[in-house]
């Protein structure tokens, strides 16, 4: 539009006042060139027209003014007039009073003034908006009064009220002492009229209102009159946050420059944007070489895909950590831990770049691999030590500082009477309540003595003797050693190691008894030999007959004594004694001699007397009785008769059948004397000898206490099962024993029982009496240890070929239909001797009658070494 197209300067140059003539009726009478220039209308276009037609959007004010003007009165008003091109111009219309005479009006162009006023208002508004957007405060100071006028934002920065007039000294007092000199210097320089009066300074204040520390930045100008500063105006900005960011950035920059990790950034196109010194050292590439290049140049070919995936994930806003490989300048690869994260723009949302932190973990990986190998070795060694610890036949207990049992091995648990699944730690008081403890003097002591309390106090204890009766009733003699466990100079617990000296003490006691017994037995032996000598001489018909009789009887006597030496014991198995005297008449498989009796052991004197009687009986049977032909049989049976009013009696029977007809001898010789009188009287009992035609019958009756060694009736040493394999086999049998029915062989899953080479499997023949067993299999270890034949053979229950010396275990198993266990010492020929632990279990096909026996044996060679 025309009016709006003119600048304020050009309008002023055209005309300042334009005169328009009016008729007495207020019509336009004249229109000069200036009016035409201003509006574009020619004189002929407007002459005779009403001035109101030129006005744009008349207002009530303009209507009143035009009415006054038509009436000849003075009028003045501002309005917009139309231009020929459709635009408009702002003018001031003024007319003086003229009455009824023609007159004139003046038009003053207001375009320039209005443009200037609008520009001023816009500038002020823009400044206000800019100050508000930037949180900038404005201030003025009258230097003659030294008082500040602060706007709202500036007042808030100083902790003052908006519009408050503040003394300069009040504000200056809040500036920190260390910053005041530089601020005062800047203001002083701005007060010099030789300069332009501008100033800029930054300082810290501590507001009086709340004690908060802030950074302020001031910019302003000093105004002068007559060469003197009179006022200042300026703006101020709180730059505390910026200052803190600068400090943080400085810290971050220092970290980036000095860290040992490679830190670099990438553009969204994957080009390197920054590259710190650690990256130069790690990759061997200088910053100026790397910036602008793609990071993929340092990625192995096989990992390019992975690198792209990680980069895309970071671009999508994810933070990624990944162990991978990168290349050095020389092409060698190394292990790195990458931390990749997006760098966001000012809005906090748009990803502007990608930051990468790369840590060389090659050394850590090598160390970790070495640690894993070391841990594996340690785990293996720990497992080995745990296995050794558990397998030790020496009880070992570890106590913690609270005197609780922290760890035990199997041997110790057997003493404590606890199971492997015991609570850990186990309060010692719970265990001690079940124990009975004696010291070396045999005095009962508090079980708390076993709690390693002296070791926990720092004392090392050695060779402390205790006799412990465990919850199962077994007695053990121990030599205890206790040591404190010290870690970093502090006692953390204690370990107690107990050496079981029960056997050693038993052997010592046995040796002492043997020495006393040797003296007693030597005297008795001399008396017996003297008696044999006299009786043999009395009944002999010649010198040679005397020598033969005397020698046979001495050999029989020696056999009885040999048994004591072979078994290293003060007692003799009844079956062993029988075979020592009649074994030379034994014919395997023919069952001419049948034994029947309990597994008992005889006292030495009883073995000597009964051995001599058996020798005489077997000699007579071989010469004249049942063993002198091919059809005769001898039955030897023994029992303990409890059905008497006094002490139980030991009864031994010798019965011959199937031999030649028997006649009583015409005279009683030494043998008959031994059989009838000596054997009975020496044992405080009686012996009877009868000669029925069908065969000789001899019976010995003597008090059980005179014959049987009750302390070793079943075996030299009866105690708990030691072997874990035997315990497992017995537990398996017990689990299968239900409602009084015996398990079957198939129920035991015999192929899964270990160790296989220690197993015994036998069939039981109940058709004969006593029952016989047929060995289906005997483990290789037993065969080799016992020196047996591998092939199966029928053997009667009582034979000594049943895995060594027979002590009644098979008969007990068959008679009771229950497991039979023994722990015995065997002294075989050719120097072979060992402690032998055996468990026999009855099995049945129908759940009632015993049809099979399965057994397992274990050899205690450590004890054997001590015995030998």
TrEMBL record:
InterPro entries listed in its UniProt record: HATPase_C_sf, PAC, PAS, PAS-assoc_C, PAS-like_dom_sf, PAS_4, PAS_fold, PAS_fold_3
Residues in PAC domain copies: 199-251, 320-373
Coiled-coil parts of chain: 361-391
GO terms of molecular function: ATP binding; photoreceptor activity; protein histidine kinase activity
Secretion signal, residue range per the UniProt entry: none
Keywords: ATP-binding, Chromophore, Coiled coil, Flavoprotein, FMN, Kinase, Nucleotide-binding, Phosphoprotein, Photoreceptor protein, Receptor, Repeat, Sensory transduction, Transferase, Virulence
Catalysed reactions listed for this entry: ATP + protein L-histidine = ADP + protein N-phospho-L-histidine
Gene Ontology biological process terms from the UniProt entry: regulation of DNA-templated transcription
SMART domains per UniProt: HWE_HK, PAC, PAS
PROSITE patterns assigned to the protein according to its UniProt record, in alphabetical order: PAC, PAS
Enzyme class name: transferase
Pfam families: HWE_HK (PF07536), PAS (PF00989), PAS_3 (PF08447), PAS_4 (PF08448)
Domain PAS: 248-293
EC number(s) given by UniProt: 2.7.13.3
Name assigned to this protein: Blue-light-activated histidine kinase
Origin species: Methylocella silvestris
């Amino acid at each position: 539009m025309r009016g709006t197209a003119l600048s304020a300067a050009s309008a002023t140059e055209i005309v300042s006042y334009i005169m328009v003539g009016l008729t007495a009726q207020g019509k336009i009478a004249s229109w000069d060139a200036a009016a035409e220039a201003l509006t574009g209308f020619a004189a002929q276009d407007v002459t005779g027209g009403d001035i109101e037609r030129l006005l744009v959007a008349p207002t009530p004010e303009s209507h009143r003014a035009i009415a006054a003007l038509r009436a000849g009165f003075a009028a003045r008003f501002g309005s917009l007039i139309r231009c020929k091109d459709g635009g408009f111009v702002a003018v001031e219309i003024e007319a003086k009073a003229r009455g009824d005479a023609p007159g004139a009006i003046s038009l003053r162009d207001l375009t320039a003034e209005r443009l200037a006023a609008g520009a001023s208002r816009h500038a002020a508004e823009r400044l206000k908006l800019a100050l508000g957007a930037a949180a900038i405060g404005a201030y003025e100071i009258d230097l003659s009064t030294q008082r500040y006028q602060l706007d709202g934002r500036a007042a808030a920065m100083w902790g003052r009220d908006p519009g408050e007039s503040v003394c300069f000294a009040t504000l200056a007092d809040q500036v920190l002492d260390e910053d005041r000199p530089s601020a005062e210097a800047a203001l002083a320089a701005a007060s010099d009229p030789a300069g332009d009066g501008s100033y800029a300074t930054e300082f810290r204040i501590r507001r009086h209102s709340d004690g908060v520390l802030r950074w302020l930045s001031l910019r302003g100008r000093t105004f002068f009159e007559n060469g003197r500063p009179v006022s200042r105006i300026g703006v101020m900005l709180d730059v505390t946050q910026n200052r803190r960011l600068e400090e943080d950035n400085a810290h971050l920059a220092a970290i980036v420059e000095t860290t040992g990790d490679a830190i670099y950034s990438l553009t969204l196109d994957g080009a390197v944007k920054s590259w710190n010194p650690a990256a130069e050292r790690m990759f061997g590439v200088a910053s100026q070489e790397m910036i602008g290049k793609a990071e993929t140049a340092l990625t192995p070919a096989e990992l390019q895909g992975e690198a792209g995936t990680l980069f895309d994930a970071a671009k999508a806003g994810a933070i990624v950590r990944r162990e991978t490989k990168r290349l050095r300048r020389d092409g060698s690869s190394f292990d790195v831990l990458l931390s990749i994260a997006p760098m966001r723009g000012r809005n906090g949302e748009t990803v502007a770049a990608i930051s990468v932190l790369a840590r060389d973990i090659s050394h850590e990986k090598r160390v970790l691999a070495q640690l894993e190998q070391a841990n594996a070795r340690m785990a293996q060694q720990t497992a080995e030590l745990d296995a050794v610890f558990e397998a030790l036949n020496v009880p070992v207990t570890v106590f913690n500082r609270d005197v609780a049992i922290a760890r035990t091995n199997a041997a110790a648990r057997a003493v404590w009477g606890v199971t492997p699944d015991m609570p850990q730690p186990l309060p010692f008081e719970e265990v001690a309540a079940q124990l009975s403890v004696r010291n070396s003097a045999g005095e009962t002591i508090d079980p708390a003595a076993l709690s390693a309390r002296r070791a926990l106090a720092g004392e090392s204890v050695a060779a402390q003797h205790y006799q412990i009766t465990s919850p199962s009733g077994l007695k053990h003699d121990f030599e205890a050693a206790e040591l404190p466990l010290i870690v970093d100079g502090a006692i953390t617990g204690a370990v107690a190691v107990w050496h079981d000296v029960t056997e050693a003490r038993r052997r010592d006691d046995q040796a002492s008894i043997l020495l006393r017994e040797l003296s007693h037995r030597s005297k008795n032996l001399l008396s017996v030999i003297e008696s044999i000598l006299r009786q043999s001489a009395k009944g002999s018909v010649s010198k040679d007959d005397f020598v033969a009789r005397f020698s046979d009887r001495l050999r029989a006597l020696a056999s009885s004594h040999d048994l004591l030496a072979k078994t290293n014991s003060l007692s003799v198995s009844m079956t062993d004694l029988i075979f020592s005297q009649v074994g030379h008449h034994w014919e395997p498989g023919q069952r001419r001699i049948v034994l029947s009796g309990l597994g008992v052991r005889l006292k030495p004197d009883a073995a000597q007397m009964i051995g001599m009687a058996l020798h005489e009986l077997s000699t007579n049977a071989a010469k004249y009785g049942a063993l002198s032909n091919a059809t005769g049989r001898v039955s030897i049976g023994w029992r303990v008769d409890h059905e008497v009013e006094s002490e139980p009696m030991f009864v031994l029977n010798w019965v011959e059948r199937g031999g030649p007809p028997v006649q009583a001898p015409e005279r009683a010789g030494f043998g008959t004397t031994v059989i009838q009188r000596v054997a009975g009287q020496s044992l405080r009992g009686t012996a009877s000898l009868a000669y029925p035609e069908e065969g000789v019958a001899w019976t010995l009756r003597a008090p059980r206490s005179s014959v049987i060694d009750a302390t070793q009736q079943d075996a030299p040493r009866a105690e708990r099962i030691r072997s874990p394999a035997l315990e497992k086999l017995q537990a398996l049998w017990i689990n299968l024993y239900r409602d009084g029915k015996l398990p079957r062989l198939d129920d035991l899953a015999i192929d899964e029982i270990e160790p296989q080479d220690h197993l015994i499997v036998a069939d039981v023949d109940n058709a004969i009496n006593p029952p016989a067993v047929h060995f289906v299999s005997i483990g290789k270890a037993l065969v080799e240890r016992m020196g047996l034949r591998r092939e199966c053979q029928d053997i009667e229950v009582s034979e000594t070929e049943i895995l060594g010396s027979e002590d009644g275990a098979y008969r007990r198993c068959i008679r009771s239909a229950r497991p039979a266990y023994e722990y015995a010492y065997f002294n075989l020929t050719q120097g072979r001797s060992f402690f032998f632990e055996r468990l026999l279990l009855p099995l049945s096909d129908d759940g009632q009658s015993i049809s099979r026996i399965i057994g397992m044996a274990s050899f205690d060679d450590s004890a054997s070494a001590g015995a030998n």
